[in-house]
Every structure is written in structure tokens, then in C-alpha cells.
């Protein structure tokens, strides 16, 4: 069985822990029943992941598989990773969502994607990465009493993401600790109105308005100060025609949305100015986690 899962960009600026979308940059995992457990890792951060004593995917997969079947069967795992670690592209959510889905598939227990999203929450309390990793598209998610409520919208094919991936990781857990616990009412209102406008823009496919309404007062500026070059990434992307330009999740990646005809200009301006950063044009993903038997 092969399972693939997309990278995700969470928050979209003001939609902290609420908005997210899926990008066509996928980790691929091949799993086969075997007499012994074996793990092969290729691609992004392979050397680092090989050096770890515990494999996050295999641990989650084994727990869920045992819960479902009562058995401790052995499998061979081959990972081909494209999502860089701790860059705000949802690498941890991708692992969690893929591992849970793989366990249900291998155990041959029927499931709905709603189930995957809610189980994933036990491992990471951020529905804004988990929901689009599972479903693809643009997702709005709300966590209430330990349950995720969500809505998804397909992202049209005339849009592209231009991502700027710095060479420095940012741990989500650490970067959350640096955030304030209280905010003035006017800042809260800025985020509520901006998040509502972004949601309406995606659901009505009226993307031009994004140029004027994306404002965050909760987390972005503080997090961007950890890597001040990101202020210039935003300035250049917007100047070259991006519809919006936001920190991806907790960073360090910057996410830029553009019409496909503007994508190359934005990409080359960013590439020329940030030679040490990895700049990519990506399609959006509207499918989410996918299984090939
Ligand atoms: N392919 C992988 N295989 C095993 N473990 C992984 C893999 N990808 C990520 N992880 C685990 O997830 C951690 C990264 O999680 P973190 O939340 O800091 O970053 P992220 O999910 O990439 O960013 P964000 O949540 O802001 O989008 C890694 O340190 C590692 O423990
Ligand atoms: N909403 C989470 C996403 C982490 O990718 C945060 O900003 O910390």
C-alpha cells in the first residue's frame, strides 16, 4: 500500500488555529506486511530522521493498528519525504494524518475522513493543518469540546502558491510560547474581520479583495522578528502582484497566493533576492491524504 499526504499552510495570517490550505507537495509512504519491522527514509531531512531513536509515523501507526486489531503485526515502511521539517508546512500533521489513515487501511476497518481528523487531534491540537492535510483544499476549522468542526472549499486551478522556505527551522511549540496571552479588543476585531473576509473570498472565489484585507495582530509580526528577512519577502511578493503574503503556520516559510499568470514574476523576484532560501511555485491540492492499494 502507498499513501501520500500534502503539505499545508496554516493560519493564512489572521486565521490563527482556524484557516489552512493544502499544497501539492507530498510525502509518500510505502507500507507492506513483513516478517520483521524495517524502516527506510529518503528525501527531506532523511539523515536527521534516520538518526532518531523513535519514528513518529511508525509509533502512531502501530498504536492505532493495535487498537483496531488487537495485533502487533510487523511491517516494512519506506518514506519518501518532500515536506521539510519545522518550516511551517505542516510536516507533523502530514505524518499524523498519514499514519492514522494507513493504520485503518491496513486493519481493513472502514473509516470516514471526519474520523481521521478527530483522531489526529490527540497528537496535535491544530485543526488548521490537520484538516487540509486530510481533505485538501481551503479549510475552515473550529475546535470545540475536543471535536473539530470544519468546512472545505475547492481551490480553483487559476491560483498558485509561491512558497519561500528559509534554511532555518522554527519549532511550532517554541514559537507558540513566545506569543502574548492577552490582546487589546481592537486587535481581536482586526483578526476577526480579516479572517471572515478571507473565508468569504475563498468561498465566493473573489480573490482580488485579498490584496486589501489581510491583517494580523496576534502572532505574525512577533514570529517574523525571529527572521527579519521575512518582512522583505512580504514586501517584494506584494509589490510583484501577490494577492496575499503571510507566514505559513508558525514559520519559517512564507506563503504567497497569486493568480497563475503572476506566479512566475513573483517567483523570480523572490529567487533573485533570497538566494539562500528555497523558492517554489506550487499547485494547490484539493484531495488531501490519498491511498493506493
Ligand atoms: N517525515 C517525518 N517523519 C517523522 N517525523 C516527522 C516527519 N516530519 C515531521 N516530523 C516530526 O514533526 C516535528 C516537526 O513538527 P513542527 O510542528 O515543529 O513543524 P511543522 O509541522 O513542520 O510546522 P507547522 O506545524 O508550523 O506547519 C519534527 O521535529 C519531527 O519530530
Ligand atoms: N496555528 C498553528 C499552526 C502551526 O503550524 C500556529 O500558528 O502555531
Structure notes:
By secondary structure, the protein is an alpha+beta fold. The protein has two domains: 2-154 and 286-292, 2-Layer Sandwich (Ribosomal Protein S5, domain 2); 159-282, Alpha-Beta Plaits, CATH 3.30.70. The protein has eleven helices and eleven strands. The strands form two sheets. Strands 1, 2, 3, 4, 5, 6 and 11 form a seven-stranded mixed beta sheet that branches. Strands 8-9-7-10 form a four-stranded antiparallel beta sheet. β1 and β2 form a beta hairpin. α3 (91-107) packs across α4, α3 (91-107) packs across α5 (127-135) and α4 packs antiparallel against α5. Bound molecules: adenosine-5'-triphosphate and L-homoserine.
CATH class descriptor of the largest domain: Alpha Beta
Q: Give helix and strand order, one letter per element, not per position.
A: EEEHHEHHHEEEHHHHHEEHEE
User: How many domains is the backbone divided into?
Assistant: 2
Terminal Cα span: 5 Å
Compute the gyration radius: what is it? Answer: 19 Å
How would you describe this structure in keywords?
single chain; 293 residues; alpha+beta; Ribosomal Protein S5, domain 2; Alpha-Beta Plaits; 2 domains; four-stranded antiparallel sheet; 39% helix; 26% strand; globular; binds L-homoserine
